[in-house]
Sequence to fold (490 residues):
Amino acid sequence: MEAMPLQATNSGLMEKKYAASGMKGETSMEWRGQKVAVIGLGISNIPLIRYLVHEGAEITVCDRQKPVDLESRLAQIAGLPLSYKLGEGYLDDLQDFDALFLSPGIPKDLPEISALRERKVRLSSEMEVFFQLCPAPIVGITGSSGKTTTTTLVGEILAAQEDHRVWVGGNIGKSLLDEIPSISTEDLVVLELSSFQLELLPYSPRYALVTNITPNHLDVHRSMEAYIAAKRHIFTFQGPDDYIVLNYDNEATRSLASECPGQVFFFSRLVEPPRGAFLRNGMITVRDVGFAKGKEEALCSIGAIRLLGVHNWENVLAAVTLAALCGAKPEDIVKVIAAFTGVPHRLELVEEIKGVKYYNDSIATSPARAIAGIKAFHQPIILIAGGYDKQLSFERLAATVSERVKAVILVGATADKIEAAIRKKQNRPDQPMIYRSSDFDGAVIKASQLAKSGDVVLMSPACASYDMFRNFEERGQRFRDLVRGMVEKS
Fold:
């Protein structure tokens, strides 16, 4: 199936609704009798399976994990007319299927997937289906870091308008596919979009934002060029009446402006772009966008932001620009900024114990994010870092650690690489002490032993969590539990 041409809302949307799980609406015949494989039983593919069942598709669920490891997910689709291929060989013999729906994290260059692409088997995703079905304008947000904070902030600002409903979902952890029957043309949908979700997406949102682009997920995308190519999909299918917001301070995003078919706006904390949001004399200022069309308007002091780190100044400026384009009022923007305290696992203060503050920054799954976390503090830092190897360079992280960190405890699969990078950067007498731990719990305990009153213990790993945990949320929760256990003991 070819992508439909872009319309004024979300790149050519089909107004279809479905009745699975009690939902009402007309049934589309597009998938009736089609042989479909859903690859990966992730969170987003559960509602996709329900939709495809209602559409009359013949569905095979494929996952590399065994049934015992998928018990909770399988329970959510129990009783549906499905076939299964679970465990070893889950990608074998799929050449006769009419379409494959890939979970976002499935590498597209796996030999089995590449062979199917050569055979012209259609590859699709839950997100493509959502774009096809969604009747409301979509606001899409991507980037290497800051996506969730910015998405949440934009959602809260737009929800404060009270003249329409706002739906927030996507990579932020919630599929909105089940909500399609409740979404109207008068609503707004705000989606966090990962590079994996964008990679195969033949649509672009009407309102788009790229927070920044730095090396990430190279274990899956294999190259920086492929990673950036995936990000481009957030604006590739836009038209001249659509909008894109880019980070002027990030060279990789700024350079995309010439490729954008829509109207380009910028945000910056370092310069004053012609259209967008920026800082002037410590004030968040908007120029020629939304309520400030054809003029400038100062909103509030940067001191109103309650989030730590200058990287969060950028997130706020990005959210201000995008929300203004979507029609947000200045007073609502200021009100939400002043009240917004952040999102869990993002420089989250867990506890203060005997003068030591413990911060959970488990979302820092790349060196760039960990660097931003480290730079958010002026106090001495005891850093916990390491984890799953996404094939990223730790050179810049090592320089930041050498300059700003008191001690570092390394753990996980990347411990050797990070230690080697730090030792190459040692350039001062009081270099940070480097410690190793065989497990995550031991790293947290060691950090607590090293820390003194006035110090910060920062768990900002610079790596994904998959060598020790299912995801960064589980890692962050384990950190919380360990720290709160220290509170009880003290």
